[in-house]
Design goal:
Shape: globular
Strand content: 5-15%
Structural class: alpha/beta
Radius of gyration: 25 Å
Helix content: 40-55%
CATH architecture of the largest domain: 2-Layer Sandwich
Strand order of the largest sheet: 4-3-2-1-5-6-7
CATH class of the largest domain: Alpha Beta
Oligomer: single chain
Largest sheet: 7 strands, mixed
CATH topology of the largest domain: Nucleotidyltransferase, domain 5
Number of strands: 7
Distance between the termini: 86 Å
Low-confidence stretches: 1-11, 65-74, 151-155, 197-212, 407-434
Order of helices and strands: HHHHHHHHHHEHEEEHEEHHHHHHE
Length: 440
């Protein structure tokens, strides 16, 4: 019996939580002896020396992790992997907020796509990422996704319609002679501007913090840009109140966003119509004038109840043709959902983090963080979006457009399930009747 216990003790590897490693490094920095630290934390001297040897990796893992459960990981992982998981978690929060069903296959493909995008921005990163099932199981544990409802792929997305859409888009683009500069896409997303994603520290604190209600700190954004990636549409922001206390005396026309309000902070049909006729069309017209382009627009978006149905009757200053994405394909092919929104929210959280003073508690920081600071950070985050990022996300519906975009081979593999159209495929003889609308 004693021999068996001894064998088990030798064969079992001890996992050291990340917070313990940080504690070891902090105590070493203060000048404490390794033997004293090991005796206090019940760690062998060899473990202390290994932690010290990997000091830089441990510090990097601690600073790049955002999930509260991530402090329990035992291995120091690369910045690229940590950043990818952070953005994937943000993307999952966004889809759950919109009650979108998710499948494991789609999330694994999205993880590979996000990883490849981050890798493309840093050529020195050579690590490969396969998005295995083992990784996915550990990712769920690290980010507390125990209650995440994973549905079957057939129930969550229409892969057939997604695969056919690139041919339909090519037909419309060729028929209307639309250059990438005048092909636009917009999408709505919810933003909890006064808290991190739903599975982090602040979400647990808000349950017992007096006067802190998450629903009051949610707003809706409409984000978009053109296929060439050189035009950021000014964000539309819908909030619960027309004039919050922090905005008294401030002209809304001077804000870096288009400010609208209703009780539920939703984009209604009236709000969208006003944005479309009074802001989107004039700004695109001005853009076309400056670039010497023919004044016409192809707008791609999903067909939701908040979008108008009488496009031809809307008074616009520039001809606009509207092409709707097929139902149940947003997660697969919608450009803004292929990395733009997740990256934008990652930038937003990063700017929030840098705004916080080192000695200031998270709860104290949120109490002083008002809507005007959020608007400023939304503006900074949106400006951080690069032309390469805004262009690369069109790859799944417009592959020819992204031929000059240098992406690593890892991302090429993520496109196969969706990019089933072939360049020799005969385009539809007539455009899908339910998918296209136009307005003059």
């Amino acid at each position: 019996m004693s021999e068996r216990k001894e064998e088990q003790a030798k064969g079992k590897r001890q996992s050291i939580p990340l917070d313990v490693k940080i504690q070891v490094l902090d105590r070493l920095d203060k000048g404490e002896r390794q033997v004293d630290i090991g005796a206090d934390l019940h760690l062998p001297s060899s473990t202390i020396r290994t932690i010290l040897k990997n000091k830089d990796k441990v510090r990097t893992s601690a600073t790049t992790s955002t999930a509260s459960s991530a402090k329990k990981i035992a291995r120091c992982r690369s910045y690229t992997l940590e950043e990818m998981e952070k953005r994937l978690s943000i993307s999952i929060d966004d889809e759950l907020e919109r009650n979108m069903p998710l499948s494991q296959a789609i999330l694994m493909e999205k993880a590979k796509s996000i990883y490849a995008h981050i890798q493309s921005q840093d050529p020195d990163v050579m690590e490969s990422f396969a998005a295995s099932r083992g990784w996915f199981d550990h990712f769920k544990k690290r980010y507390n996704l125990y209650n995440l409802k994973i549905t079957g792929e057939a129930a969550s997305a229409d892969t057939g319609a997604a695969g056919a859409f690139p041919a339909s888009l090519k037909y419309v683009v060729d028929r209307g002679s639309y250059p990438p500069d005048v092909v636009f896409h917009v999408d709505e997303t919810g933003l909890f501007w006064k808290r991190m994603p739903s599975r982090t520290f602040i979400s647990r604190e808000q349950k017992r913090a007096p006067g802190f209600k998450a629903v009051k700190y949610r707003l809706t954004l409409l984000l978009g840009g053109n296929a060439s990636g050189d035009f950021h549409i000014k964000p539309l922001l819908v909030y619960h109140y027309q004039t919050p206390r922090a905005m008294r005396g401030i002209s809304k026309s001077s804000l870096p966003v288009i400010w609208k309000a209703n009780r539920k902070a939703w984009i209604t049909r009236d709000i969208f119509t006003e944005w479309f006729t009074d802001h989107f069309c004039p700004s695109v017209q001005c853009y076309c004038w400056h670039k010497g382009l023919e004044e016409k627009v192809l707008l791609i978006m999903d067909n939701t109840p908040s979008h108008p149905t009488n496009w031809a009757e809307l008074p616009t200053c520039i001809p606009v043709e509207v092409l709707f994405l097929p139902p149940n394909t947003m997660l697969l092919i919608q450009p803004m959902d292929q990395g733009v929104i997740a990256t934008f929210k990652a930038y937003y959280q990063l700017i929030e983090h840098t705004d916080r003073e080192n000695k200031q508690s998270m709860l104290d920081f949120w109490k002083q963080y008002h809507i005007m600071k959020a608007v400023s950070n939304i503006d900074l985050s949106w400006k951080e979006m690069t032309q390469l990022c805004l262009k690369a996300v069109w790859k799944k519906i417009w592959p020819e457009l992204c031929e000059d975009v240098q992406l690593p081979e890892a991302e090429q593999g993520t496109q196969k399930p969706q990019d089933t159209s072939d360049s020799d495929t005969e385009p539809p003889k007539e455009a899908p009747k339910q998918g296209i609308a136009s307005g003059q």
